[in-house]
């Protein structure tokens, strides 16, 4: 059974930093691309970032490019998202998601709340 468990988020002041992690199990982590997706209050899902398996090439939404860094540790089967220079508009529930061969999300974590506020 695929399991994705995000770390606890939290309350961060604008301009602050926070790192999220996602512990994966139930599948061969190193064989799959992974993504972070978020949902702000009252809005739809927004893809944030992705990292491929193998060459670990990374991709970012324009809204977070230059501020967020996605990474993975295949030995620990863990996905990370380092978030710097956080803005109130980054407030959302953040989900990690496993990507299938077609690039679709086929498994999701439970989500973790990140609130950026003074």
Task: Please provide a written account of the structure.
The chain has 118 residues and is mostly beta strands. It is built from no helices and 11 strands. The chain has strands spanning 3-6, 10-12, 18-25, 34-39, 45-51, 58-60, 68-73, 78-83, 92-99, 105-108, 112-116. The strands form 2 sheets. Strands 2, 4, 5, 6, 9, 10 and 11 form a 7-stranded mixed beta sheet that branches. The radius of gyration is 13 Å and the shape is globular. The model has no long low-confidence stretch (mean pLDDT 96).
Keyword list:
118 residues, mainly beta, seven-stranded mixed β-sheet, four-stranded antiparallel β-sheet, 11 strands
Summarize model confidence as the mean pLDDT.
Answer: 96
**Proportion of strand residues:** over 45%
Span from first to last CA?
Answer: 40 Å
Ranges with pLDDT <50 over ≥5 residues? none
Q: Summarize the amount of helix as a percent range.
A: under 10%
Cα shape: globular
Order of helices and strands: EEEEEEEEEEE
Q: Biggest sheet, in brief? A: 7 strands, mixed
Can you count the helices? 0
* Backbone structural class: mainly beta
CA gyration radius, whole angstroms: 13 Å
How many DSSP E strands?
11
């Amino acid at each position: 059974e695929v399991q994705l468990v995000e770390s606890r988020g939290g309350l961060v002041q604008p301009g602050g930093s926070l790192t999220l992690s996602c512990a994966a199990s139930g599948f061969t982590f190193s064989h799959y691309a992974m993504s972070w997706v978020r949902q702000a209050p009252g809005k739809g899902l927004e893809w944030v970032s992705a990292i491929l398996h193998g060459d670990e090439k990374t991709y970012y939404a324009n809204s977070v490019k230059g501020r967020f860094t996605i990474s993975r540790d295949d030995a620990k089967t863990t996905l990370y998202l380092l978030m710097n220079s956080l803005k109130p508009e980054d407030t959302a529930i953040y989900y990690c998601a496993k990507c299938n061969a077609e690039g679709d999300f086929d498994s999701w974590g439970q989500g973790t709340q990140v609130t950026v506020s003074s």
